[in-house]
Design a protein that fits this description.
The chain is mainly beta. The chain contains eight helices and 29 strands. A hairpin with a 5-residue loop joins strand 26 and strand 27.
């Protein structure tokens, strides 16, 4: 029996092949993966035969197909599935399509609280890899992972959602909602007036799944590492409950204030993307409700990830860094709040950045404003992967460390619920009006909008929202390897 190699999925950036690598310490080997790309690895400028045709990959949320269209909006490939996306679709460096699927048959039941409270949402549950048959043009499914059937998950209390990241050893990181009862939440210090007795609240879990292929070709799957937000909470309202402090919450930037969200909702954290930083064995997630990016240590064991010590950075599973909204950890005003809803935080490797490493790129939903934004910052990270993050309220350097804002550009469309941002080898960007018609928007290096494309006008005949868009060049390995 051998571990299944799931391929490393590129962050689908032209300039930086995605850093999706690594492994949990409970795994048998160290992992290294990458979402960034060096321009030299993408194209050879001395090769006159280089195909610089731009292709856009997208998966309509209402469809069971994924499409690749060229820069003139002509369909080049279609991958079919039994599932609607749930919600991401990636094309890896060998041309395989890795796609999350909405396991509707097992989720859309009368007793499933997730489905009953969000009937219009594409949950996850399935991950599948496929390729295009070079002879027939048909989609071939290589393997399928089902959270309920293969991992024993219970969709009534646990729900994979939004995003995955593939590690270089083939393991998969998955975001999973975990329902906590009203009583559990009260005991953890959650304000009881901000919950219902029936729903409680949803916590977040990150699991690392390893696949093994048997001699007969069948696959088995197991969880080899996990991190739980529930282990890293803080609150200053209920002295008799867990996670209490009588200190200012600004003294606990590495913890998550369980009472920051004051609306009566169960989905208080709402993580919507996950990204792996290979160089430092760290995970980036984005919280749409807290309007922040969070960085977590992946070098820990599962036991260490539940603590505030051990691991490479000696913080256990506490947050190594956070950015976007200091009000989420106790700052009294919005002077240094830069995000209002956030999606698709990813790393752009760039040795010329002021930190000598790279930048964080993200889509700022900028809710209730006139335009969403693409934001790029240079975080305060040193050569060992340590971040500068202060604990007092005087000045932005003490809140976030000495970061630099490289770009904060309006897209021209307002989108509250989805969005993506990718840096291209030109230094420009591709983003999208994802919640509308899935429109692709290209921006110059200074953030000026230079072109748009509405995928709904192409030969696929599908329109409507998508979760993300990705661009490739015709000479990229991802495109060259599609047919097998």
């Amino acid at each position: 029996m051998t571990p299944i190699k799931l391929k490393s999925v590129a962050s689908l950036m032209l300039l930086f092949p995605l850093l999706l690598s690594g492994c949990g310490s409970d795994s048998s080997s160290d992992t290294e993966n990458s979402t960034s790309s060096d321009t030299s690895s993408e194209t050879d400028s001395s090769d006159d035969s280089t195909d610089d045709t731009a292709y856009v990959l997208y998966a309509p949320l209402s469809s069971t197909s994924t499409y690749l269209v060229d820069e003139d909006n002509n369909q080049k490939y279609e991958w079919t599935s039994d599932y609607k996306p749930g919600q991401v679709t990636y094309l890896d460096s060998e041309g395989y399509l890795l796609r999350t699927g909405y396991d509707a048959n097992n989720i859309e039941t009368n007793d499933n609280s997730f489905y009953q409270t969000q009937p219009g949402f594409n949950f996850g549950g399935v991950v599948e890899r496929s390729h295009i048959d070079a002879n027939t043009g048909d989609t071939v499914i290589d393997w399928t992972l089902n959270y309920q059937d293969d991992l024993g998950g219970d969709y009534n209390v646990e729900m994979p959602h939004h995003d995955i990241a593939v590690l270089p050893n083939g393991n998969i990181l998955m975001l999973v909602w975990v329902r906590k009862s009203y009583d559990e939440a009260v005991a953890a210090g959650r304000n009881p007036d901000e919950m219902t007795q029936d729903d409680g609240i949803l916590s977040e879990r990150i699991i690392e799944v390893q696949g093994t292929e048997s001699d007969d070709g069948s696959n088995s799957w197991e969880i080899v590492w996990q991190w739980n937000a529930w282990d890293h909470l803080v609150q200053n309202q209920y002295a008799d409950e867990a996670n209490y402090t009588d200190e200012d919450l600004l003294n606990f930037p590495n913890k998550i204030d369980v009472n920051y969200i004051t609306s009566n909702t169960d989905d208080i954290f709402h993580l919507n993307n996950i990204f792996y930083i290979e160089d430092y064995d760290q995970i980036i997630v984005s919280s749409n409700t807290y309007s922040e990016l969070w960085v977590i240590d992946h070098s820990t064991t599962t036991a260490q990830a539940a603590t505030s010590t051990d691991g490479t950075y000696n913080k256990g599973g506490d947050l190594l860094y956070r950015w976007g909204n200091p009000q989420a950890y106790g700052y009294g005003n919005d002077t240094y709040t830069f995000l209002n809803g956030v999606h698709d935080v990813n790393l752009v490797l760039d040795s010329s950045a002021s930190n000598g490493f790279g930048t964080f790129l993200m889509y700022n939903n900028n809710k209730q404003e006139t335009s969403s934004q693409v934001i790029e910052i240079t975080p305060p990270i040193d050569s060992d992967g340590n971040y500068t993050l202060g604990s007092d309220s005087e000045g932005i350097n003490n809140l976030y460390g000495p970061f630099t804002t490289d770009l904060a550009a309006d897209i021209g469309y307002q989108e509250n619920s989805v969005g993506s941002a990718e840096k291209l080898s030109t230094g420009g960007y591709i983003t999208c009006d994802c919640g509308g018609d899935g429109r692709a928007v290209w921006m110059d290096s200074d953030g000026s909008v230079i072109d748009e494309m509405d995928p709904s006008t192409n030969t696929t005949g599908h329109s409507g929202p998508v979760f993300r868009l990705y661009q490739f060049l015709g000479s990229d390995d991802e495109i060259q390897g599609i047919e097998k």
